[in-house]
Amino acid sequence: MSLSIWLGSLEQGLLWGAMVLGVYMTFRVLDYPDLTVDGAFTLGAAVTAQYILLGNNPWQAVLGAMICGALAGLITGLLHTGLRVAPLLSGILTMIALYSINLRIMGQANLSLLREQTIFTQVRDITLLGPWGPVLLGLMVVIVVVGLLYFFLQTELGMSVRATGDNEQMIRSLGVNTSTMKLVGLAIGNALVALSGSLVAQYQGFADIGMGIGMIIAGLASVIIGEALVGNHTLFRALLAVIVGSIVYRTVISLVLQLGMPATDLKLLTSLIVVVALAFPLVRQRLGFRSLRLRGEQVAETGQCAQDLSSRRG
User: Fold this and answer.
1) What's the domain count of the chain?
2) What distance lies between CA 232 and its chain's CA centroid?
3) What's the rounded Cα separation, in Å, for the pair 209 and 11?
4) Most buried of the four, 116, 119, 223, 224, by CB within 10 Å?
5) Where in the sequence is the signal peptide annotated (predicted)?
6) Residues 6 or more apart from 4 whose CB is under 8 A from it?
7) Taking residues 199-211, what's their average pLDDT?
8) 280 and 201 fall within a common domain
């Protein structure tokens, strides 16, 4: 692979990293199977594209996308906490509704930003950065998001959100309103997803109504890959694993495309990556148990041999 392809994989891994952090926030921290992701990602892209086309500042568009993503997460949370809709179904309902909402915002299925001023065109105008401009911008965004998320999850409110995902009944017995904690977690998670959609739309130069399809699977794949490679024993390590998983996932996609795989099979490849990543811990655990059992059998055989030898000498 050439340097440009490696840079492209790194850029995409960092830009999609915010989306993976959003998936981590809902699925891992909150333990909520939120399918709003597919719609919230496109929502961030749609709001950003339309806002920029109206002649506004692209950085303000990013902020507006995050606010809209947070509202989408709140709607999902209110369906669950207020109307007692199942978590999975609440996300599906919001995702379906967002499809029509996104079309309303965009006015058509695709909006081009190729001739518009975006945050990436501003970065590329800085000649000193050269081709590393988008990478540095993505890295800066990831550092800020990870830092803020790490700080938040260590506050009293953040720890209450984490405790709600770990043991909802126990934390409710301590007087914590778990419904509010779910709303907070879902709002933050989908705000991060919309942030990623905004960045990706400006990076690619367009917003498309179908760009969010399969984002939840890509996010889960990145989370699982990162946890398998880096681990999640501490909070910082878990957040770092999410970003590493996002970069590795995008690199694998680029490698497979370079080997000649049709782009139409990417969703199939993503599903296979998720299956392999899910099976990896189980296989490693079984192999670990097997090695321990074999070692125990070897120790037992050695002990028996030593006992037989001792009895013979006696």
Assistant:
1) 2
2) 14
3) 22
4) 223
5) none
6) 131
7) 94
8) no
